[in-house]
Structure formats: structure tokens, C-alpha cells
Design goal:
single chain, 307 residues, alpha+beta
Length: 307
């Protein structure tokens, strides 16, 4: 069950109430007249089955509330209501499978925002990946994968293409380019410092069987990226989010970036090129898979809503 909270200008409030009153997937509808101060008008509260949220939001957007008022979407963690159960029965599909596009697009913007926190996690994850390569440690490699925040921006590429949000597409591409560039430059400088201090040597870059997969992409690299992206997108669009941790520890984007920086510091250009290929294979595979999964979800739910 979802809760929609709306601040509606007085001149639109009657139209909003009218378009919601007879919707069978709505269990509760409340209107507090004069409660909204900005914009001046009414506060309208609606409980709606998750499966029908897109249709209800589209009807509200047709009234132009998104331009002159505000719609806030909240997940209701627990509820007891006979009317609510009836609304869920009347709504098509399953709540766990339902994709609420307002929620998905908002999260895509948040997860792909280029800010200090995003750059900090990218940099720390890439530096940790470089250390993992030097120590030939799979545990540290997994740690760097989990720490990296890049999946949100990669998933946002698919969201942007499916929903035709070209501003979001530019937003996500910029975050990925700047994020990886900053992380690799700082890791490169960190590697040069380690080289100058004698902490890292050419010997450390050879004979590392536990992490050599980072610069040797193959068909499995692409397949893993595709499966992980599909699982990740399903996790962020579903009401039951449980697969993201598996995505974070399976994709070799951050380790590849770390190896590019480390290899450049030591002039190991074969590894730099191999890791760059690994990085591109993963990003392209994840972006395409995410886009396809979202495209299928959109087509399926349009058919369910219209059926």
C-alpha cells in the first residue's frame, strides 16, 4: 500500500477529488480544506494499492497538479484495513512486481547525483581495489565492489532511456565520467606515492592469480554484467528489494578502474588496456540489460493497466 500526500491549489482541489473519488484501487481518501499554505489550498491524502499507483499518478498529472501543486509518495510499512485489502484485490497484478515510475525516477536522480559523497566513495573504493590488486586479495576486491556507488548511476542510464528523461541521461553520464576520472586520477597519484616509498613494486603486479580476472575480460564478463544488471534493476523497481548486495559483489567496474590507475603508474599498458576493456564491457552490458528489463516491465504494466 502507498500513501499519496498532495498539496493542491484551491482551484484544482475539486477536480483532483473528482478524479480520485471513484477509483476502485483507492482505499481511503481524505481532504483537509485550507490546510496547505504553499501552494495555498487543500491537503489531500490518498491510500492506493501499489499496483495501481502509476494510473492514479497519471490521472493526477492530467489535472496539472504536478506543475501547480505537489505529490509526495510514501511506502506504508504496515496497515490494517478491510478497504485496503479490497483495493489490492481490485488492482491488477502483484504489489511485489509493480513498478512505480515516480519512485524509480526519483531514486535514479538521487543515486546518480554528482556530489562530494559520490566522488568520495568512488575514490575510496578504487583505492581499495588497487590495494587488493597489490595484495592479490579477493576479500579486499569484494570490499571495493561493495563500497563503489556506481551501480545507481549505471541503472539510471536505463531509466532515462525507457522514460525518455534525457536530462537524467546527461546527469548519469556526467556522474560516471567524472566519478571514474577523479577516482582513477587520485588512485594513480596514490600508486605513484606507493612506488616512490617502495611500498609497491613491479613484482607486486605479477603472479597474482586471485585478481587476474580484472584485466582479462571474456564472454563471462559480459554475461555476469547482464545478469547482475537485470537483478539489480528488479531489486530497485520491486517492493521486495533483496538482490542488490549480490550485484555489488559481482561486477568488476571498480576493480578494473583501480587496475587502470595502478597499471598506468607502473607503465603496465597491457593491463591498463585489458582493464579498460573490462570496465567498458561491464558498464555497457549493465546499461543495456537494465534498459531491456525496464522496457519489458514498462510494456507489461501498460498492458496490465489497460487490460
Amino acid at each position: 500500500m502507498l500513501r499519496l500526500e498532495m498539496a493542491v491549489p484551491s482551484r484544482l482541489a475539486d477536480r483532483v477529488e473528482e478524479c480520485l473519488r471513484d477509483e476502485p484501487a483507492i482505499s481511503h481518501l481524505s481532504r483537509v480544506r485550507g490546510a496547505a499554505l504553499r501552494p495555498a489550498g487543500d491537503l489531500i491524502l490518498v491510500d492506493v494499492a501499489r499496483e495501481a499507483a502509476n494510473k492514479v499518478i497519471e490521472r493526477l498529472e492530467a489535472v496539472d497538479i504536478n506543475h501547480e501543486g505537489v505529490i509526495q509518495l510514501r511506502q506504508v510499512p504496515a496497515w490494517i484495513s478491510r478497504e485496503g485489502l479490497q483495493a489490492e484485490r481490485l488492482a491488477p497484478g502483484s504489489a511485489a512486481d509493480a513498478v512505480v515510475w515516480l519512485e524509480v525516477v526519483s531514486r535514479a536522480y538521487d543515486d546518480s547525483e554528482l556530489n562530494f559523497t559520490f566522488l568520495s566513495f568512488m575514490t575510496m573504493a578504487t583505492m581499495l581495489a588497487a590495494i587488493a590488486i597489490v595484495l592479490d586479495s579477493q576479500i579486499l576486491t569484494v570490499g571495493s565492489m561493495v563500497l563503489g556507488p556506481e551501480f545507481g548511476a549505471i541503472a539510471a542510464l536505463g531509466v532515462a532511456m525507457v522514460r525518455e528523461r534525457f536530462g537524467l541521461l546527461r546527469h548519469a553520464v556526467r556522474s560516471l565520467i567524472v566519478g571514474f576520472a577523479v577516482a582513477m586520477v587520485i588512485t594513480y597519484l596514490f600508486s605513484l606515492l606507493g612506488k616512490a616509498l617502495g611500498w609497491i613494486t613491479h613484482q607486486d603486479l605479477h603472479m597474482r592469480p586471485e585478481t587476474e580476472f580484472i584485466y582479462r575480460p571474456d564472454k563471462w564478463s559480459f554475461l555476469v554484467a547482464v545478469i547482475d544488471a537485470a537483478a539489480g534493476v528488479l531489486s530497485i523497481t520491486s517492493a521486495k528489494m533483496g538482490g542488490l548486495s549480490g550485484v555489488f559483489i559481482s561486477v568488476t567496474t571498480i576493480p578494473a578502474a583501480g587496475n587502470i590507475a595502478l597499471g598506468a603508474a607502473f607503465g603496465a599498458w597491457d593491463e591498463v588496456l585489458g582493464s579498460a576493456e573490462q570496465l567498458m564491457v561491464n558498464i555497457v552490458g549493465m546499461a543495456i540489460a537494465g534498459w531491456l528489463v525496464l522496457l519489458v516491465q514498462q510494456a507489461v504494466w501498460r498492458r496490465i493497466d489497460n487490460g
